[in-house]
Amino acid sequence: MSLIAFWGAVELGLVYAFVAVGVFLAFRVLDFPDLTVDGSFPLGAAVTAVLIIAGVNPWLAACVAMVAGAAAGIVTAMLNVRFKILNLLASILTMIALFSVNLRVMGKPNVALINADTMLSPFYGLGLRDFYVRPLFIGVLVVIAVIVVWRFLESDAGLAMRATGANARMARAQGVDTNRQIYLGMAISNALVAFGGALFAQTNGFADVTSGVGTIVVGLAAVIIGETLLGARGILIALIGCVLGSILYRIAIQLALSTDMLGLQASDLNFVTAALVTFALVLPRLRRGGAA
Amino acid sequence: MISVNNIQVIFGKGTPLQKQALNGVSLTIEQGSFVTVIGSNGAGKSTLLGVLAGDVLPSEGQVMIGKTDVSRKGTAARAGLVARVFQDPLTGSCGALSIEENLALAAKRGEARGLAAALGPKRREHFRERIAELNLGLENRMGDRMDLLSGGQRQAVSLVMATLAGSEVLLLDEHTAALDPGMAEFVMNLTQKIVSERKLTTMMVTHSMRQALDYGHRTIMLHGGEIVLDVAGDSRKELQVEDLIAMFRRIRGQTLDDDALLIG
Ligand SMILES: Nc1ncnc2c1ncn2[C@@H]1O[C@H](COP(=O)(O)OP(=O)(O)OP(=O)(O)O)[C@@H](O)[C@H]1O
Ligand SMILES: [Mg+2]
After folding, report:
1. Which ipTM was obtained for this model?
2. Around Cβ A166, how many Cβ atoms within 10 Å?
């Protein structure tokens, strides 16, 4: 693997770290299997791309993308909480609907961002090579996001959210409005995922409706790889695990694709991902089996 | 103070499984009074506690806690007035959170929850002291996940959790039923201590006639969703466990007779 390919993998891993943290919030904190992310990731990319082309400041465009992602999360939460649709199904409905929404937002399946100003533009001319600038810049954002989410989850408000996912009956008995927590958690989760989408569009120079396919599996892969490597040792470690998992996942994929011996091509990615996630899910069980 | 007036609870209304769980229950419990509740399985005891806690909203009747009419308020909305310990130790606390996080959650019961760190040094110390009072050695395990504790330890912590935030009433639903005799006694003594120290208006469901008479100021018996016995003061002091059991038998016999009549 070349140096550029390596840092490219790190960069993509960092972009998807936002997805991983979002998935962690939904799946692990709220215990809400949320597939909305397959729609909110390209939604974030689409909104950002269209706004940037319209001349909007790229930071503002990314913020709007987050709001759009939050709205998507709220729709899923509403289908589940208000209309009592099973959580998984509710999220699939939103995801499917978002495919059409994303096409409407962009007006076509693919929007290019060539030569447009992005959040990264100011940093390109500072002497560092581009393939270092991007992961460095995104890395800083990831660190900020991890710290914010960590402090939130260890606050009184965050504790209420964690209790909602872990023991809703107890949470209610402690005065936590569990429905509100689901709305809030799904909004934050999908806002993070949409921000990942916004970064994806800005670093790769395009937004594409199909770029969301399998986002959930990639996010879940990152979460599981992180858990497998670092174990359950508190919120901060878990969040770091998400980031680490996301990066390692991309490096593993890059390695698998660049090893000619395996004869893999880019279109095998989804299969490799599914195999990797399955492996990560089965591994702890195998280990336990071995110990017993 | 608790005051419920003519409460009707019907589960599965209009279905073949329709069940009248409470039928016109009225009850007033003075501030600081400790009431024990007995009755056979399905008598409506948990439903009555659920009506007070907000898990069950009655189709008819009024529920007052202190000066607040909570008849239409859900569990979360009235949690500031109600502290509870459940029968199942797993229900009352959060296994995935640490002991101190559970306490932090309970300390804010019924209050707005902000973005301040849930476990500042001052709060940590306060929680530690409260847990140390239990003499279970748990004060050295404050960061351990709750699901590492035994059922009895969890119930003891749940009792402490119930008292961290102020409340009008304490509801205990067979909270020693899942414990071994030694631990059950420990938790009952702790309950007694907490209730008398904090002068909490308390309602405790139990299947132990002994507990029902030994603890508290008043005992009520539910049957078929109605209050069939309500004793306090001297008449309660004279009451023996045997009397209660006899009463139980008689009531159950009556229903058997009713059934026999229906079949005949
Ligand atoms: N959610 C529910 N849906 C339908 N029926 C219910 C529900 N909860 C309770 N019931 C029924 O209402 C009646 C009273 O139940 P409740 O749980 O109050 O009894 P209990 O006195 O607490 O009994 P136990 O001693 O077994 O705990 C029972 O017949 C029960 O089957
Ligand atoms: Mg019961």
Report:
1. 0.89
2. 20
